[in-house]
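Appendix B. One record, verbatim.
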Amino acid sequence: MSVQGLIRLGDNTLILGQRLSEWCGHGPALEEDIALANTALDLIGQTQLWLGLAAERSGNGQTADTLAYHRDAWDFRNLLLVEQPNKDFAVTMMRQFLFDTWHYEMLNALTDHIDPEISAIAQKSVKEVTYHRERSTDTVIALGDGTDESHTRMQTALDRLWPYVGEMFSADEDDLMDMAALRPKFDVHLSETLQESTLTQPESDFFHQGGKTGARHSEHLGHMLATMQVLPRSYPDAKW
């Protein structure tokens, strides 16, 4: 079992959770503000489990906190999708929908993992992610099949984020499972949702990659980490 595979899953939820937390106090409506914050909290909780297990198995004295707060951008192994900036509510929810659709299928598959600790984390997390996917799916449908403006914004968001989808299904020896095997079920849910939301799936097969291997990240990650890590790096011996 690859420690890097655990770190990838923890980095995904950490970075997306941090992105969603940026909406706190700025949501378009109180209900959305609270929902985004709750989703962020769920993802950070999952981060604690994945990175905690990775730190334990690395055997080098690290903790989930040191992995989260004391690595530089080039040491992170998250998907490029999750580090993309919020932009507007349409981009935020389309990013969430694309990630949730993949995340749900991935966690479902991991519930049967041969490693009992991985299986246990997946079983706990998929309960939360079931709601995440339901909510983001409903939101994409409501906005896609809403007003002319909301439809245009959601289509623009989908077109912008589509080049980051393919990386979710690129697979190597560090993954905890065959990520490519998730694509058929992902495509079914995607197609059904886009049809109901009257949105058009982009035709391009091109996708950016390098985030999950650490080969490359966008410039957005470094800026985000500077904000996220400033307190524990400024006061490394502080007890919270």
